[in-house]
Automatic annotation (TrEMBL):
Name of the protein in question: Phosphoribosyl-AMP cyclohydrolase
Family matches, as NCBIfam families: PRK00051.1
Binding site for Mg(2+): 76, 78, 80
Protein's cellular compartments: Cytoplasm
InterPro entries per UniProt: PRA-CH (IPR026660), PRib_AMP_CycHydrolase_dom (IPR002496), PRib_AMP_CycHydrolase_sf (IPR038019)
Cofactor, free-text remark: Binds 1 zinc ion per subunit. Binds 1 Mg(2+) ion per subunit.
Reactions the enzyme catalyzes: 1-(5-phospho-beta-D-ribosyl)-5'-AMP + H2O = 1-(5-phospho-beta-D-ribosyl)-5-[(5-phospho-beta-D-ribosylamino)methylideneamino]imidazole-4-carboxamide
Source organism superkingdom: Bacteria
Keyword terms of this UniProt record: Amino-acid biosynthesis, Cytoplasm, Histidine biosynthesis, Hydrolase, Magnesium, Metal-binding, Zinc
Amino acid sequence: MFDPATLRFDANGLIPAIAQDHASGEVLMLAWMNAEAVARTLDTGRVTYWSRSRASFWVKGESSGHVQRLVEMRLDCDRDCLLVLVDQSGPACHTNRRTCFYTAIRDRAEVEIMAPEGTASTVS
């Protein structure tokens, strides 16, 4: 059986978790988990992160309704990073965009390549 304590957490007891849409492969966001957040995610199927700014657990979609349901959790080879394959309901980003990675660097300039959902699209 998998034990979250076998992961390599940083000095703050956290591990980065990359959320990826299981169907499209789109990278949605990066957040942090502690051992308890990993266990809660595996137990409930609802992706649970540790909010560094609020110092509390954060069940994705609890307030926004933009839920992440766990499809599969993967570990990297060093056991110090997680890939969380999810079924994403609605936008993943708090800016109301599908992904948090909506800014590209092109010709050394920042370019917004995605508008918030419900607004006009930005040409990419």
